[in-house]
């Protein structure tokens, strides 16, 4: 059997091909799954998709009509998949429920320290042999307060690093994480966390209840000199509201690895074509903002775990087994 994998990055391809070797053939394509590319999957019972695939009703119908019966998504998040439609069409859907939390947590800290110490601006200057320090002053993080919204596996890893920096710890989640509490984290409501934190990092999934969790009101409640980091999902932040606050001169720094309208932009080279997204175009012009293209997960360890789990999801489907990774089970 040949599995068709959409949206495969160049670094990811050998890992996928090696993982499937000895099990099934795999065809890797670099295009992302959407209405225009879905017909490519015709004749493939199993397709694997990336986080930026658009698995809405129409795409799922095209896949189903072409003979696809199983979708193996190579990510933890699944907000891009219409699970109700998949269920109605009899499509099995599985995801990767867990991979290295350190990849994302460490990258969140990379963004936080980069904007705090003005690393991008400093690197740009030194390339031009401008070695002035004007405008590059950062702040010690020791003794300041880190607010962690979402204290699951990734949030816990982020908290451990914050503890290593000697920061005070505030947390917000539907349930307390004992490991975070043992590090001295105090759980408070979201409003208090935003108001008191010098650094706010987002580690919650994107659900209807968390869409624009950081909205205009939330942004206004934060300290003027706070740092905001989002390595989870772009839809957690109201980007237009964020731009308005940045235009008002607020925030020491903002580090974003995700963007709410990133589909069709991130993972692609738009350097020649440019972009029509005025909000993103404005966002990247602020000197205290660092935007990266959804790469927090992108380490050899994390991607390796994602690929291995994807292969196991395929093997489980073919064997009629069901695991915790299954979002929509196989039809009887």
Description of the structure:
By secondary structure, the protein is of the alpha/beta class. It has 2 domains: 2-99 and 299-328, Rossmann fold (3-Layer(aba) Sandwich), CATH 3.40.50.720; 101-291, Rossmann fold, CATH 3.40.50. It has helices spanning 13-20, 57-65, 83-89, 101-116, 119-127, 153-165, 178-182, 190-196, 216-221, 239-247, 278-283, 300-319, and strands at 2-5, 25-28, 46-49, 70-73, 92-94, 145-149, 168-172, 186-187, 199-202, 227-230, 253-256, 289-291, 326-328. The strands form 2 sheets. The chain has a 7-stranded parallel β-sheet, with helices on both faces. Strand 7 (168-172), helix 7 (178-182) and strand 8 form a beta-alpha-beta unit. The protein is globular. The two termini are 21 Å apart. Pfam families: 2-Hacid_dh (PF00389), 2-Hacid_dh_C (PF02826). One of its GO terms (molecular function) is D-lactate dehydrogenase (NAD+) activity. Residues 111-296 form the D-isomer specific 2-hydroxyacid dehydrogenase NAD-binding domain.
């Amino acid at each position: 059997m040949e599995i068709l994998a959409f949206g495969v990055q160049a670094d990811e391809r050998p890992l996928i091909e090696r993982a499937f070797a000895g099990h099934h053939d795999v065809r890797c394509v670099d295009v992302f799954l959407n209405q225009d590319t879905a017909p490519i999957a015709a004749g493939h019972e199993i397709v694997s998709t990336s986080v930026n695939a658009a698995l809405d009703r129409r795409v799922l119908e095209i896949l189903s009509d072409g003979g696809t019966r199983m979708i193996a998504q190579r990510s933890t998040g699944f907000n891009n998949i219409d699970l109700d439609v998949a269920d109605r069409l009899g499509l099995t859907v599985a995801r990767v429920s867990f991979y290295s939390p350190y990849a994302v947590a460490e990258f969140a800290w990379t963004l936080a320290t980069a904007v705090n110490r003005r690393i991008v601006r400093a690197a740009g200057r030194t390339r031009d042999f401008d070695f002035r320090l004007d405008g590059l002053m950062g702040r010690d993080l020791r003794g300041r307060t880190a607010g962690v919204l979402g204290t699951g596996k990734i949030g816990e890893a982020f908290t451990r690093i914050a503890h290593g920096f000697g920061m005070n710890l505030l947390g917000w989640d539907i349930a307390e994480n004992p490991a975070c509490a043992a590090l001295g984290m105090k759980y408070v409501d979201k409003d208090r966390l935003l108001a008191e934190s010098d650094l706010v990092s987002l580690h919650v999934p994107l659900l209807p209840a968390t869409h624009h969790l950081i909205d205009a009101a939330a942004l206004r409640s934060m300290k003027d000199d706070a740092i905001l980091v989002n390595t989870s999902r772009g839809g957690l932040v109201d980007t237009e509201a964020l731009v308005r606050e940045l235009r008002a001169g607020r925030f020491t720094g903002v580090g974003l690895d995700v963007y709410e309208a990133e589909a069709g932009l991130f993972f692609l080279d738009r350097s020649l074509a440019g972009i029509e997204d005025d909000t993103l175009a404005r966002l990247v012009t602020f000197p205290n903002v660092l935007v990266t293209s959804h790469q927090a997960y992108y380490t050899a360890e994390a991607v390796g775990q994602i690929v291995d789990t994807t292969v196991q999801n395929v093997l489980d489907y073919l064997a009629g087994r069901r695991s915790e990774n299954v979002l929509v089970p196989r039809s009887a």
